[in-house]
Amino acid sequence: MVECWDYDSNHKHDFIGSCITSLFEMSISTEGRWPLLNADKIGNVTYRYSGTLFSTSCTPTTEKVKEPQGLRLTLSAKHLDRKDITGSSDPYFEIVANSNPLSSYPYHWDIGAQLLLKPPQKGSKRVVYKSEVISQNLNPKWKSFQINVADCGGLDTVIMIQVVDWDRRGSHDFIGAFKTSLRELTLPNATFGLTNKKYFG
Questions:
Q1: Best-predicted range by mean pLDDT among 102-116, 120-134, 157-171?
Q2: How does residue 163 score in pLDDT terms, banded at 50, 70 and 90?
Q3: At CA 111, angle to CA 106 and CA 117, rounded to 5?
Q4: What is the DSSP letter of 166?
Q5: What percentage of the chain exceeds 70 in pLDDT?
Q6: How confident is residue 29, by pLDDT bands cut at 50, 70 and 90?
Q7: Confidence (pLDDT) at 177
Q8: Among 68, 104, 80, 20, which Cα is nearest to 182's?
């Protein structure tokens, strides 16, 4: 699957669309083109697709690119919301990945033909890592941890990290979340804003 995103300096990147193809299909097609589909827009009367992906060249290489099996990460947060009556929070975080990545359907696209769009399928979410709880701290730094790259679907698959305030009664309070990838997490000085839909209607 190939995903196209609109980059934003505050890391609130906007998803444009995606398509499914293969390296083989891209390599044999000299004028390959695939429509980029956005699941949130499919069904709108005026929507057909969000753009076109083109395969313009393919150069064979014998160089083998290796993807790491695991990564060791250290996450921290600052200025978290106060969720407890004490004026603080007991935060922990979870890394959530899709069991089956969002996908569209492959097309041999003919520009002159009518596109018959089918809704992409969404996989169920699963927690691949859960941190320890840090008590009474709005600026926590959690312990370093190792995560399996394959559990997240690869270095460039979209994952979600959500921060939660732990409650001994089990009614944990959601603080905020953001979407990223393992590769983006490894960038120098990577910083992300936590958002909570509760405050945006």
A1: 157-171
A2: very high
A3: 45
A4: -
A5: 81
A6: low
A7: 93
A8: 68
CATH class of 2-200: mainly beta
> For residue 52, which of 32, 25, 22 has the smallest C-alpha distance?
32
The sign one gets for the Cα dihedral 127, 102, 193, 155 is: positive
Amino acid at 163: V
Do 157 and 3 touch, CB atoms closer than 8 A?
Answer: no
The b-or-e profile of 61-97 (16+ CB within 10 A means b, else e) is eeeeeeeeeebeeebebeebbebeeeeebbbbbebbb
Residue with more model confidence, 93 or 155: 93
- CA nearest 37: which of 113, 101, 118? 118
Q: Which two tokens stand for residue 166?
A: 């732990």
Token pair for residue 71?
């990564």
Structure tokens at 167: 């409650």
Where do we find the tokens 């839909």?
Answer: 197
Name the DSSP class of 157.
S
- Parse the chain into domains and list their residue ranges: 2-200
Task: Please compute Rg for the chain using Cα positions.
Answer: 20
